[in-house]
Amino acid sequence: MQDDVVGAQPTDEPLAALWRGDLIESAHRGRAAFCDPVGNVLEATGDPEGYTYIRSSAKPFQALPLVVSGAADAFGLTDEEIAVVCASHSGEDHHLAVVRSVLEKAGLSEDYLQNGPHPPFHAPSAARLAHSGEAPRAIHGNCSGKHAGMLALCVYEDWNLLDYREPDHPLQRAILNVISEVCALETDEILLGGDGCGVPAFAMPLKNLATGFARLSTGDHLSDEIAEGCRRAREAMRANPHTVAGTGRFDTRLMQDMDLLAKSGAEGIFACGSEDGWGMAIKISDGAGRAVEPAALSILSNRGFDLPKTDPEEVKDLHGEVVGRIDTVL
Amino acid sequence: MQDDVVGAQPTDEPLAALWRGDLIESAHRGRAAFCDPVGNVLEATGDPEGYTYIRSSAKPFQALPLVVSGAADAFGLTDEEIAVVCASHSGEDHHLAVVRSVLEKAGLSEDYLQNGPHPPFHAPSAARLAHSGEAPRAIHGNCSGKHAGMLALCVYEDWNLLDYREPDHPLQRAILNVISEVCALETDEILLGGDGCGVPAFAMPLKNLATGFARLSTGDHLSDEIAEGCRRAREAMRANPHTVAGTGRFDTRLMQDMDLLAKSGAEGIFACGSEDGWGMAIKISDGAGRAVEPAALSILSNRGFDLPKTDPEEVKDLHGEVVGRIDTVL
Q1: CB B88 within 8 A of CB B289
Q2: DSSP output for B251-286
Q3: What is the pLDDT of residues A210-237, one digit of tens each?
Q4: Longest C-alpha distance within chain A, in Å?
Q5: 3-state secondary structure of A206
Q6: Is A58 part of the contact surface with chain B (CB cutoff 8 Å)?
Q7: Element containing residue B202 per DSSP (H, E)
Q8: What is the DSSP secondary-structure string of A242-303?
Q9: pLDDT band at residue A330 using 50, 70 and 90 as cut-offs
């Protein structure tokens, strides 16, 4: 399996660009796949079979064992708390409070978090933290909700709380198994790498991420218990779009404006899905986060979705003058 | 002219990649051209004719009017001061002192600088500035040497010091004319955009940037006065590689290790040249700075240059564990 995909360069197409003056200064290629819950590719841009790490687009899947096991109910987790477990949050005060609540319900403090510290994505929150003289802690990191959920399940199952990041820990095996079912792959077809927060990152064909979001968004072609877990996770995310990302973030805005479930990830990964019976996944080939929004809006628009009118992101010089924009290719 | 290149996507090839685990997570395509001082393309990867903004790789060219006019000699500028005029410096104390010296010799204070403020590239210097509570000023910006040189020429020529960033200011017209000669293009073949520091950015076929560096590195195929200006600029840069960039930066390391003149720029631009009679230019198509070093080293190595042994840049998770690397494609 692995030998087939090492060094592979799936075919892709230009999806977004930085325009400066009248010229494209830099162009971002990528791939996209729409799938139904069966796993059929409904439409593709570039090669839907090529492998990609799904990074934080996996977070709603990684949350499923917490819900399916009964742990979420046993601890009385709210929809908002389930949403932060699925989040790449911006580290705003509100996010930290929800993460703390998950930990407290599981009887833990933030000292148990092993996601690694980084400053909040939300610039004013990061500036406030820096100004206070406090160093960023794990709870400020965008993955702290995911790790709080992982820890809560470990408490519930009486698993070791210290080595829960290891790929052979029962928690990580449970997550791999649920991703296998939701994304319609055998476990040995999912390749593992290391994610930024120190847990496994999952690589799979792009179409399987799209299929996973089609199933997550509908519950179709899943066992009853996983389907029910998907319903809880998607309703939690849809009801709390700010909790899943944060102020001004694309996933949050998209879920506020449209009837979609959306979750992006590092290195230019984006996935969304609809209860109408499809999932869509995008990989920006070079990993540029700035290309995700114009690429996703363009692909959704080409498929006929009525999108809220948004202007392309402006590129400004250090005097605040607009010198370019991040936009589609043509 | 412009109509031909708007929206054009020059052909390119994979030059670098982020490897995570055993897989390429993100791939960076690009183009490269080797040219002689005549303008002949000696070797190319991808399309050498496609336009690109040359961004800060233009800085040695932008410094030429200061030298050629006699202003640099009139003010008694040292080689190190000429080097900082050609620099995208890291804002280390040493850089600030050299920029201040250029301004003082021209009878100016740093208040005249119009390059716009940003924190020093050099992380310890940026942290020290933040800790002091001082806001970054223009002098900390990587272009402050360039702007100090522009201002010095304006003082020497008795040009307006307040609107020197405008494309029709005699300073900017002098720069465009010298770039036209050095890069072997008519002025109307050079397209203008806005650079980050608020002066014109220049777009041209990639091969013309390579030709410009071949001429800059040799003085061949230039008028005597421009050739002499090129000699001064390249000897200043070669003698002061730390001044041109800074601690740990690729241009600095490359000039310390090899008999080359090197100057990179924003959005994945890199140019270098040798007194042996060639120039080389690279554009990473997606603009990723992280791809420049592996792409440049690979292209120089393929052409037979004996490069210092360096390990690829490691990608670490938030726990400091190595989870990947930025490297060539295969």
Answers
A1: no
A2: HHHHHHHSS-EEEEETTTEEEEEETTTEEEEEEETT
A3: 999 999 999 999 999 999 999 999 999 9
A4: 61
A5: helix
A6: no
A7: strand B200-205
A8: HHHS-TT-HHHHHHHHSS-EEEEETTTEEEEEETTTEEEEEEETT--GGGHHHHHHHHHHHT
A9: confident
The stretch A127-139 carries a mean pLDDT of 93
pTM: 0.96
Of B191, B197, B286, the CB nearest to A317: B197
Residue of chain A whose Cα is closest to the Cα of B318:
A116
Average confidence score pLDDT of chain B: 96
* pLDDT bracket for residue A7 (50, 70, 90): low
Q: Do B21 and A192 touch (CB under 8 A)?
A: yes
Asked whether the beta carbons of residue A8 and residue B18 sit closer than 8 angstroms, the reply is: no
Which residue do the tokens 């819950």 mark?
Answer: A37
Strand (E) or helix (H) holding B30: strand B23-35
**A 190-219 residues inside an 8 A Cβ radius of B:** 191-198, 201, 203
What is the tens place of the pLDDT at every residue in A101-111?
A: 999 999 999 99
CA distance, residue B51 to nearest chain A CA (Å): 8
- By the 8 A CB rule, do A95 and A110 touch? no
Give the B window 236-255 contacts with A, CB below 8 Å.
none
CA distance A36 to B166: 55
Q: What does the pLDDT read at residue B8?
A: 65
In whole angstroms, give the CA distance from residue B325 to residue B237. Answer: 30
Q: A5: Cβ–Cβ under 8 A, 6 or more apart, which residues?
A: A50, A51, A191, A203, B23
- The interface pTM score, or ipTM, of the predicted complex is 0.95
